[in-house]
Design a protein that fits this description.
The protein is of the alpha/beta class and about 400 residues long. The protein is built from 9 helices and 21 strands. A hairpin with a 2-residue loop joins strand 11 and strand 12.
Length: about 400
């Protein structure tokens, strides 16, 4: 692979000249999806380059809480459930492998997860979700108010709980540490990582992408994959705004959905299972920190937090878990989740383009689905048959 000549810079990225880089695959986007695809492709001996407009692993992937709901691939019929099941099987394997290769513990842990509903509408939704889990062979323990009080004494709901269940197979991972292990694992497998690069021009011969010009040089891969999260829509539009593509290709529809989170410091961990209620959750960490999230907001690409949302999340946590009343509020942040219109990710080839792929739109499940997305995308890009039917994930599925 003819890469840009020169040694590594102090930041760990190769210093670029104006030579042409010719990797097998170019991955655009350095979040958990892009890193995972690069890691998997490199495992199979492919030469991979990854570029990102910012720092590696610093957007929605970093901002999330690391919840990994259970799934069962053996009993999953729908492709999205098969994808979840594959990820559920792969995550512990990847975590062990990454720690062995990099020495970084991503703090993967099967903790189980408590799910509560005090609102009638949320109770119906939770009941339906539990039934679906059971149909897929996932273990579900239904609880009444008394059992919640007995088994989870730190949770204060009283008789207000209308529906509750415990999922023993739920797991957690610490997002920043997982991203650090993936980044280091990619480097150790020979993946070239280039942060702080802007794409300027896409160069085509008919419907084949032949090269990509960037602010720091040209890449001429055999194929590329757009995996830039909420920014994938902009990249796809930029790519497809070429004259000979006009009106011919259905475009993906991905919008950013802001999620605000609050970090509390309880001093020590006094409960281990995350608590989920509706769209909100409370996730304890091993070091005594507690993550509370998350809002669901259409705010464009604004990643700022709001005092109202931060206060609402902190109050939710302290009301539900009274022992958190004394917990110090450390900080708050927001991430932009990449949401497709139907909340199903795009995984596959862009229509009518010979060598351009897309893996984006995972919404709130990017981290959870990242190992499975990496495996099926690596299979597809390598000319193999993916082990999950990717028809429902195609761009022109509507």
């Amino acid at each position: 692979m003819a890469f840009f000549t020169s040694s590594f810079s102090l930041l760990g990225a190769p210093a670029l000249s104006r030579d042409v880089s010719t990797p097998d695959f170019l991955i655009i986007g350095g979040g958990v999806i892009g890193l995972s695809i690069s890691y998997e492709l490199a495992r199979h001996g492919h030469q991979v380059a990854l570029i990102d407009k910012g720092e590696i692993g610093r957007e929605a992937s970093w901002a999330g809480a690391g919840l990994l709901p259970p799934a069962n691939q053996q009993h999953a019929w729908e492709p999205i459930e098969q994808l979840r099941g594959l990820s559920h099987r792969l995550f512990p394997e990847w975590s062990k492998q990454l720690e062995a290769e990099t020495g970084i513990d991503n703090e993967f842990e099967i903790t189980g997860g408590l799910y509560l509903a005090r609102d009638p509408g949320e109770a119906v939704s939770l009941r339906m979700a539990c039934l679906q889990y059971e149909e897929e062979g996932v273990e579900v323990l239904s609880l009444d108010a008394g059992q919640v009080a007995e088994q989870f004494p730190h949770v204060q709901v009283g008789e207000a709980v209308l529906e509750a269940c415990f999922l023993p197979g739920e797991a957690v991972v610490r997002n920043p540490r997982h991203l650090q292990s993936l980044e280091k694992g990619c480097r150790q497998r020979g993946v070239q990582l280039f942060p702080q690069i802007e794409i300027t021009t896409w160069n085509f011969e008919k419907d084949q992408l032949v090269s990509v010009d960037t602010s720091q040089g040209r890449f001429a891969p055999k194929a590329i994959c757009l995996a830039a999260g909420a920014w994938s829509q902009r990249l796809a539009d930029q790519l497809l705004d070429q004259g000979h593509f006009a009106g011919r290709i259905q475009r993906p529809e991905i919008e950013p959905i802001r999620g605000q989170l609050v970090l509390l410091d309880a001093g020590k961990r006094f409960f281990s299972a995350p608590i989920n209620e509706g769209i909100r959750y409370i996730v304890p960490r091993r070091d005594g920190h507690v993550l509370v999230g998350a809002t669901v907001e259409e705010a464009g690409f604004d990643k700022s937090t709001t005092p109202e949302a931060v206060e609402d999340l902190a109050s939710f946590a302290r009301q539900l878990v009274p022992q958190l009343a004394a917990a110090k509020q450390v900080r708050a942040w927001a991430g932009l989740r990449p949401a497709s219109v139907d909340r199903i990710p795009y995984i596959g080839k862009l229509p009518h383009l010979g060598n351009v792929y897309l893996a984006a739109g995972h919404y709130r499940s990017g981290l959870h689905l990242s190992p499975a997305t990496a495996v099926v995308m690596a299979q597809l890009m390598s000319g193999q048959t993916p082990e999950v039917d990717l028809g429902p994930f195609r761009v022109n599925r509507a």
